[in-house]
Amino acid sequence: MSALRDTAARPMGLRRAAQGLAAPLPPLLVEASHLAANVQLGEHGRRRSGMGSEFWQYRPAHSGDEARFIDWRRSARSDQTFVREREWQAVQSVHLWVDGSRSMEFAGDRNRPAKGARARLLALALAVLMIRAGERVGLSEPASPPRAGEVQLMRLAHVLSTAQTPQDYGAPAPLALLPGARAVFLSDFLGPLDPVEAALARAADLGVRGVMVQILDPVEESFPFDGRAIFESMAGTLRHETLKAGNLRARYLDRMAERRARLTALAARAGWVFSTHHTDQAAQSALLWLYAALRER
What we know:
Blueprint: H1 2-22, H2 27-37, E1 55-60, H3 72-75, E2 82-86, E3 93-98, H4 115-132, E4 136-140, E5 143-147, H5 150-162, E6 182-187, H6 194-205, E7 209-216, H7 218-222, E8 229-232, E9 239-242, H8 249-269, E10 273-278, H9 283-295
């Protein structure tokens, strides 16, 4: 009878132990880890040629290649000479900036996440992938130096879950960027663009390459309003009332297109890449794109 009781109790005890172990984990980290686990990157998702000890690939030898890099055994099996390339193993530092302003709290539908929630999820899921690949990740605001390890993931999850500002719109702070590092800016970029331009210029001066992702709710793209409407910023500092909202649609869409064109140009000038993600789209596809884009920086 005691053996039967032990067998029956074991699953319950295991479940309680698992729940106790997971209890301290911030919900954001649990969700981000789940999202990262669904992204199939392969064993060497970020491989590139460089200095290291791990074999990566053979490539045809070019004029200027040193003789010591030629793999004579592989070359003997062909009429062509081949070089043995090694995998890049230098640890990189990645800075994340996630807009915590009130504007990011907007969601056009209760069935969609707020822009800020999606930005935080993407940022932390990217950190999971980077840190588990052996790289260092930190925040540029609030300043948290890039570090490696699972403890850093806990630290980032805590900060991202609590770091918000009362301002209507946010702007990246480039003061904490390390020279030669990489960076990711996640925002709706609906505020003044001069601070964004200054941050990208500072990053370019430091040799920092990166990715800008504009996160918008579909409502902000389509402007589906008509008739009487009251538009108010999330912090309540801006307010506009109109009886003919439909008459504003064409001008609004033109201004959005102009803003996106300027953001694209600013990113290109700094050697960055720019993209837009909508909160009704799958977070997994955005993470895949973001990871691939950052890999090329």
